[in-house]
Fold each of these.
Amino acid sequence: MRALRALAADELEGDPAGDRMVPGGAVVPRWGAVTTLLVLVDGIGFGRSGAPNPFDGAPVSVLAPLAGCEGPRGLEVARVDATLGHPGLPQSATGHACLYTGKDCVAVAGGHRTGFPVGALARFVVEQSIFAEARAGGLRAGFLNAFPAERARHIERVVRGEEPRPKHFYASASTLAAVARGGALLTLDDAFAGRAATYDITGELARAHGVVAPRRTAAAAARAVMAGAREHDLALFELFLTDKAGHAQDTTWARHEIGRTEAFLAALLAECDVERDLVVVTSDHGNLEDLSTRSHTRADVPVLAWGRGAGALVASLGPRPDLAVVGAAVLANARAKAAPARAPAP
Ligand SMILES: [Zn+2]
């Protein structure tokens, strides 16, 4: 894994020299607090043009780079190696783990691992979580997917060791990373309160499975996620139905999920205050961009960055970044941007 190039001082937004002092000596940075929101869209990579790639010909704007087209002006794009140089097809457990720890978790696990992290990989995600790291540095870090409260509290107790780990305990890398060292999951109450959203954005699938979730438009869900992000310095939101559609090799379903994701991301970018917020969209491995195979692919995955410091973040990734570099860069960005704004009160 290549080391993350440190952000040079002149790449950071704002100028500490422009800070002003207020009575009592507190420093009030002129740029204010900056929110870094990481959005994981599972299983989307850069594919070839033509019929197997459902992004090609779909009415997309934010996701246009996946169709070989330019995204909206201001969208910073990078190609990311999801294999980390390891043989085989990249998978979700290790891909997410790389993003949420900033480390080569494929090496930790001894290869690409599917589904949810278990064993040593799960422990590593808890120990090395970028969200826990952010919290240890005084930042507010959170995972904005809404869970049923009972499940959320159960996961938290097991990860904290307050309850024995059931034989078949499955928790995603995101939940492990989010609750590591004192973090808490958000619940459906937070979704109803407008600071979180369900994995399906609109609530339709969650409700179909008996979950009492708010029914929302993509725009309303984006508003809730952005509002939730602004309660944190570093926040995460995850979507995975794109990967399901890719495995199904179903063009109609694929286009539906592309439409759902595009509507959400477009609304999210519209909600983003480019003076204060940074949105970083990425993925864990390719899949949906090639419906000729039901498997994942070794395709590069995107970083699509928008808002405050998007160009600096993409530049900091270097010429050939991998998933771990992206995770480390997101943490570094949150630290660099949020820390000055959180000067102690007088
Ligand atoms: Zn995945």
Note: The first helix runs from residue 92 to 101.
Amino acid sequence: MSDLIVPSEHDAFRQMVLAPDLLDIARRVEHVRRMQGGRRWYDELRPRLRVARKFLVEITDRTLPLVGQAERFLDDVERWVQRPEAPLPRMDRIRELAAATLREGLPPVPRTALDREARCHRLAARPWIGRTVWGCPLGWLPLIERAEEQLRRFGQNGDRLWHTYSMEERWGRLDWTTNLSYPEAHVIQCAVAASEVTCLACGNVGSLHKSEAWHLTLCDAHIFLEEHGPPEAIGKLAYPQRTGA
Ligand SMILES: [Zn+2]
């Protein structure tokens, strides 16, 4: 991975790459706590801790906000994995910081249907993305743009062999399947993880909202609209049509 990013931007990027792992570890700790056991989830924590540690030690700027918190969090989880009677690691702060890190450096959300269209056309012109981009809701388009830019600038072997199979919302998160491998696949992984904390209708901070019919990641205002607004209201925001088009 260190080959992927020039040194000045390496730490910020490494910090972002660490975030999905931290969220995954927090999710597993929470699951084990709730299930009071869940042996498999528990066993799978150890290798994940090792991977997160590996990313963490490679960050040279120790003053980055997520770094200190991540060190403490991983220490706590390791202690708890070794001795389950140790206090449960605190997860609110690390979740909050990891989510904020995943949303760093995003371009603004499209303001109009026309703006979205123009920006989708730009992304669709990248052969490895193509028409799949039209499946991406408006609020998540900046996630794709950021990833595309990171890959264009820092990808190792050019994009000739890259391919996107699908890009769409599924069960509340971005389902972006590609043939990219590591290190480039990290960039895709960060976009997917960022979609779990980003409203698909407006791009603000969001969380998973489950109704009988749908699982959608929405901000508070759009959860309200989904529950009390007209049918299709969220769909019209996420996939706007130009009036008169
Ligand atoms: Zn929203």
Note: Residues 113-238 form one domain.
